[in-house]
Amino acid sequence: VRPALRVRGLSVTFPVSGVDIPAVRHVDLDVPRGELVALLGESGSGKSVTARAVMGLAGEGAQVSADELTLGDVDLNSASARTLRELRGARMSLVLQDALSALNPVLTIGDQLGELFRIHQGASKKVARSRAADLLGQVGIPAPAKRIDDYPHQFSGGMRQRILIAMAIALEPELLIADEPTTALDVTVQAQILDLLGSLRTQLDMGVLLITHDLAVVSEVADRLAVMYAGRVVEAGDADTVLSRPSHPYTEALLRSVPRIEHHGGDLFTIPGSPPNPARVPSGCPFHPRCHRAIDLCSSVRPELLATADGRTVACHRSEEVLDAHSR
Ligand code: SF4
Ligand code: MG
């Protein structure tokens, strides 16, 4: 495995009224090149903070610490602000949900894309323009040579998201982080964008970290997944293994709340309660107030994240019983 991203013991805290509030706690994460890793969890679980911390964009006042944080052969942990700035876009890219606000409304798509090649690769105007058109074709924009002089507002939401992906892959980064890239789009377009990310990971031999609250969107495309709850990874492993046989009750509950085609009528399962405020995380296992499998031990002792025989990691006192419940 050639890692694009390797994270060990990442923690991020934010000062709120003089108190340090932990948003991410000792997170381990691997994104190999050529693979798509889904980082899953409800909103507020620490997924986006993890992504921003990796990019060196944790924000004002954030305290980031990690035992290891590497992008390929680069130690991000000790990198200067300047180095991080140079790496962003060139070797690691971030795609966000809102394509319209990420694109410059007064520049044509061709100019915005071409600028990347001119600035970073010293390409001539003509070369930059033809590379921009190639790139638009690569992300599935029909008739790119005709669309290159159009402005962002002349494209649909799905096409704008493709353009944003084009900008993110222009310099062939080894890591692409996509934070809820499809949330604003309808279901059919969502699937197309995920397919695109899936094929780009292979074509460009790039690691993709896909951040989402929606398990339905990852099941087809993810190679591996990591599930976060209250700032920690609670289960991680091969996507097929985890999705076919979850070993953590939270993963189990996320799976039960995915709408299925074969699901006729009846209300969809929703996980009771809501994720904890990072300033007031419950004692013991942070999921215990919402867990359908909780026992007495769960409210007092926090389960460690441990490796299992089938190659995943899980943090639950009852993971073996959960696994058993899904074997047949
Ligand atoms: Fe549920 Fe207990 Fe497992 Fe936490 S440790 S997920 S409360 S069974
Ligand atoms: Mg988020």
UniProtKB/TrEMBL annotation:
It is found in: Cell membrane. One of its GO terms (cellular component) is plasma membrane. One of its GO terms (biological process) is peptide transport. SUPFAM superfamilies: P-loop containing nucleoside triphosphate hydrolases. The keyword Transport applies. The keyword Ribosomal protein does not apply. Keywords: ATP-binding, Cell membrane, Membrane, Nucleotide-binding, Transport. GO terms for molecular function: ATP binding; ATP hydrolysis activity. Belongs to the ABC transporter superfamily. This is Methionine ABC transporter ATP-binding protein. It comes from Actinophytocola xinjiangensis.
